[in-house]
Q: What sequence folds into this?
């Protein structure tokens, strides 16, 4: 069911982007912005409703900022921003609100994959094009014009391959801090990682959601430590940096040394995570680039102008060990 895209481009910089071909029939919602994809600066204002997940993580803050910068008045947009506080029903209601306001286009960062069919159909019936950013949905790809995001499964594979190489040859008891249940990154990062460690001596002893938040990561890790004992956990795989940072607090409070007694692998490579990697408290981070705003704005402009829009496979993420993090940290944009 998942929409597939044609090309994955290996790029070296965190801010490098590419549009790749995948046609889609964007709706014609009537605005006539600039067709060049630079945000419609020479045309009428494009009114865009953006349904963000919430503000759960450092990644999310960087993504929101990137979107607000790209969808500025200066660039020819009026952005109606909604953050749903990780509440899926509220997010769907926000989209319904955008439909009844008659916006020119709707952008959604869907909290979870399932449950989007009806409201996406309602947007289609109202001739309002929808562009997905960040996370994917299970609904038919006829119901949206484009998706702009990242390869979460590949991120999980990269994290798992590193774990397999470093720890897979000896008995290693691992706990997993999952992202939001039902979200594309939680699903796909688990799938990719599990496939990569198959056949190694890494044993997953428990896996629970920490909802992509620092507090969630901390309290789930406290529970793991209580249940298994701090000496019986060798490795934490956290689906994002914030949960890893929460786990670090729990590990320290239990008298153990994060990054040494208990190894930690996470995903995102936001500033605080990279700093913890440099400090030796996290052992490895796979990047997930949140700076999607310019690409999404260009796609919205194109769709609203009735052009064939390119659907995007966005960036092959980088990955960092301690030395790589030390080298990269001074120039990180988020
Ligand atoms: O990894 C996490 C955030 O959907 C890729 O959501 C995003 C994830 C990101 O809360 O930190």
A:
């Amino acid at each position: 069911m998942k929409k597939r895209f044609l090309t994955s481009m290996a790029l070296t910089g965190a801010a490098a982007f590419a549009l790749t071909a995948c046609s889609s029939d964007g709706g014609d919602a009537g605005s006539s912005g600039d067709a060049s994809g630079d945000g419609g600066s020479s045309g009428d204002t494009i009114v865009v409703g953006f349904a963000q997940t919430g503000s759960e993580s450092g990644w999310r803050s960087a993504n929101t900022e990137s979107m607000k910068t790209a969808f500025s008045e200066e660039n020819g947009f009026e952005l109606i921003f909604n953050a749903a506080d990780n509440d899926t029903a509220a997010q769907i209601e926000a989209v319904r609100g955008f439909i009844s306001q008659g916006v020119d286009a709707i952008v959604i960062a869907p909290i979870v994959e399932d449950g989007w069919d009806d409201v996406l159909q309602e947007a289609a019936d109202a001739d309002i094009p929808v562009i997905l950013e960040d996370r994917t949905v299970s609904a038919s790809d006829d119901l949206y014009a484009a998706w702009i995001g990242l390869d979460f499964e590949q991120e999980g594979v990269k994290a798992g391959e590193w774990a397999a190489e470093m720890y897979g040859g000896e008995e290693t008891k691992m706990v997993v801090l999952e992202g939001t249940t039902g979200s594309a990154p939680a699903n796909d990062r688990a799938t990719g990682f599990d496939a990569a460690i198959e056949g190694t001596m890494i044993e997953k002893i428990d896996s629970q959601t920490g909802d992509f938040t620092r507090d969630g990561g901390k309290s789930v890790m406290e529970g793991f430590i209580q249940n298994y004992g701090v000496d019986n956990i060798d490795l934490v795989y956290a689906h994002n940096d914030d949960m890893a940072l929460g786990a670090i607090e729990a590990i320290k409070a239990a008298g153990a040394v994060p990054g040494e007694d208990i190894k930690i692998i996470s995903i995102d490579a936001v500033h605080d995570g990279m700093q913890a990697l440099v400090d030796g408290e996290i052992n490895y981070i796979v990047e997930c680039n949140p700076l999607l705003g310019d690409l999404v704005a260009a796609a919205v402009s194109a769709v609203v102008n009735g052009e064939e829009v390119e659907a995007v496979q966005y960036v092959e993420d980088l990955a960092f060990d301690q030395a790589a993090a030390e080298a990269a940290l001074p120039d990180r944009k988020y």
In short: DSSP finds ten helices and twelve strands in the chain. The first helix runs from residue 58 to 70.
